[in-house]
């Protein structure tokens, strides 16, 4: 369809959010590795070199780090467990001196393996499809670049700073300190950070890290019971702020992320959107009425993963997607709409309707 020139990708270190999903490598993604502060910094810089973009979706896809199934307790024990282990710890509740961050902080290098496709046909399919999506959205509702988005009028600006609650969810990864460092150095400060630990084997370490920060705005919320995919969104119902930013444990936001996201969320056009940085355009139905996997080789119907380094697909405008994954930025009011429809199951978070 569209024959427009592909806009060249802009590079702007400030605007970015790190994307550390090794989504091309499948689900077995944790490859823990001790790393030095230097490689940690390098990782931050690398992630900051990515282009920022915002993607909004009418549906949400909840991608959580795979949590292992718990051993099968008796149902009664399980219920007791649920209540016994639910606790919230803020700084005020700690009596002993907080642990030293230099001793407790762990880091993890998440390999940024960006597989590149060298299949000409696939590259052509994917890029043409992306161009088609852009062309139709450009005509339908307009797709703004980041400077255009930032030039739009927003109710959230330096005179009216929104209260942003950031919800982090941790299970096994060692990225909490890196995330908190990034959040503490944002151009627009956060209101609260809630660190959730549901059924995590690392609960003690995570708790110590939060205590180590000794910051009344950062709270640790843990439970022996795993509230699974909906848990963090249920917690989001309780925020007192204006906006909520829910982040996977492998997402390290760039310095201006809160500023950019809150600005866009404050515009009339996007106030009812969910914003994020990784998204999917769903597959198209094949002749046999099945939906092919995204990875299906040489399939034109397989849909898009955005951005997709495998096919050099960078995203430099706002793009509407079917699902967001890895991070979700939305108004606190909008969180309620997630629960309008009863989910078919709490075991997966996929196909949750936002509207
Ligand atoms: C977008 O609009 C232009 C100009 O009106 C038109 O030529 C083009 O075919 C449209 N593209 C799509 C994908 O609808
Ligand atoms: C923790 O923070 C409080 C208030 O900011 C401060 O008075 C106290 O000294 C801090 N504790 C440590 C061990 O840094």
UniProtKB/TrEMBL annotation:
The keyword Transport does not apply. The chain crosses the membrane at residues 42-64. Keywords: Membrane, Transmembrane, Transmembrane helix. It comes from the Eukaryota. PANTHER family: GLYCOSYLTRANSFERASE FAMILY PROTEIN 2, OSJNBA0004B13.7 PROTEIN. This is Glycosyltransferase 2-like domain-containing protein. It comes from Genlisea aurea.
């Amino acid at each position: 369809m569209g024959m427009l020139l592909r806009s060249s990708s802009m590079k702007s270190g400030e605007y970015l959010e790190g994307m550390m999903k090794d989504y091309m490598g499948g689900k077995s993604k944790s490859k823990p590795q001790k790393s030095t502060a230097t490689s940690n910094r390098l990782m931050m810089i690398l992630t900051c070199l990515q282009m920022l973009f915002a993607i909004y979706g009418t549906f949400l896809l909840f991608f959580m780090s795979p949590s292992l199934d718990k051993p099968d307790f008796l149902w009664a024990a399980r219920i007791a467990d649920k209540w016994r282990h639910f606790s919230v710890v803020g700084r005020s509740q700690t009596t002993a001196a907080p642990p030293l961050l230099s001793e407790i902080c762990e880091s993890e290098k998440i390999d940024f393996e960006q597989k590149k496709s060298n299949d000409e046909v696939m590259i052509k399919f994917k890029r043409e499809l992306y161009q088609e999506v852009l062309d139709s959205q450009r005509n339908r509702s307009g797709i703004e670049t980041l400077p255009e988005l930032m030039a739009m009028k927003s109710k959230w600006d330096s005179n009216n700073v929104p209260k942003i609650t950031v919800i982090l969810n941790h299970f096994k990864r060692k990225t909490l300190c890196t995330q908190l460092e990034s959040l503490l150095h944002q151009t627009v400060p956060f209101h609260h950070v809630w660190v959730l630990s549901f059924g995590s084997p690392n609960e003690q370490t995570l708790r110590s890290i939060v205590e180590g920060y000794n910051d009344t705005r950062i709270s640790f919320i843990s439970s022996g019971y795993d509230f699974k995919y909906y848990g963090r969104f249920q917690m989001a119902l309780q925020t007192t702020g204006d906006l909520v930013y829910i982040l996977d444990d492998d997402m390290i936001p760039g310095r201006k992320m809160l500023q950019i996201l809150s600005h866009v969320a404050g515009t009339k056009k996007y106030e009812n959107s969910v914003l994020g940085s990784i998204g999917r355009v769903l597959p198209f139905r094949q002749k046999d009425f099945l939906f092919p996997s995204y990875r299906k080789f040489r399939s034109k119907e397989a849909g898009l993963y955005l951005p997709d380094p495998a096919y050099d697909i960078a995203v430099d405008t706002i793009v509407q997607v079917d699902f967001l994954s890895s991070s979700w930025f939305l108004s606190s009011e909008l969180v309620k709409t997630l629960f309008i429809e009863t989910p078919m199951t709490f075991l997966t978070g996929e196909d949750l309707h936002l509207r």
